# Entry
Amino acid sequence: MNQANFDEARKAEANYHNELYSDHEILEPGTWMSKPVPIVMELLERILQHKDHVTVLDLGCGAGRNTIPLAVRLKGTNSRVVGIDLLEEAIEKLRENSNKYDVADVIEARKGDAEQVDILEDAYDYIAACGCLEHVSSEEAFIKVLERMKMGTRLGGIHCITMNTDIQEVERETGRALETLIELNLPTEKAFSILEEVYDGWNVLDRKTTLLSIDEEKYEKPSQFRCQSITFAVQKI
Ligand SMILES: C[S@@+](CC[C@H](N)C(=O)[O-])C[C@H]1O[C@@H](n2cnc3c(N)ncnc32)[C@H](O)[C@@H]1O
# Structure
């Protein structure tokens, strides 16, 4: 993707998410933010079978639909959940939600780009990156972020990655295909082959695809976002 298209994709994504976070609440009916991603919570329970306090990173955390339930579950355990998002509005909303759900003492909310943010060595027991990694600037950037996530993970730690692949956008009224404005639109099999190569030697806990379609108000006219959403969960052994 050239720089102009990348900038346009970033702008469209920022507008969409800013509007979503200001008009809708997490963990309330009506949007995809109404519940945490089930596997994100299930994998936390798996880690808690062996540890009584953990450090969690939620990369591309948005307003906190996963970050908040993770922190609620971990409250009182001396654990920490770090939420990082590219958008100031997402981080503000996450802070607001941390107070609303009484988990401000568990959560650290930070603005940052997944491509550049510091991830300290062996800092985390669990890293979730849900709907974030398809927004990095290139395949190389994607691989570099994964490598940094790996380096930042303790032995026995888990990564839960969900990302949209093979994305198509269509105009809702007419079904007309739109030019897809996504920073990294990988074919599904390519995404899996990168993940499998990067995580060679880790234990694969889950690997699946789900056909997804979401109505969006992202462009001038209502559109529909269609993709293969992939889930890839792995454990460092
Ligand atoms: C589809 S939302 C998902 C939010 C959250 N993970 C969830 O599952 O509810 C994607 C989020 O990733 C953030 N994002 C996109 N590109 C990013 C990047 N390069 N670094 C950090 N966050 C990014 C967006 O601002 C947005 O809040």
User: Anything to note?
Assistant: The chain has a mean pLDDT of 96. The chain has six helices and eight strands. Residues 3-166+185-211+230-235 form a domain with the Rossmann fold fold (CATH 3.40.50.150).
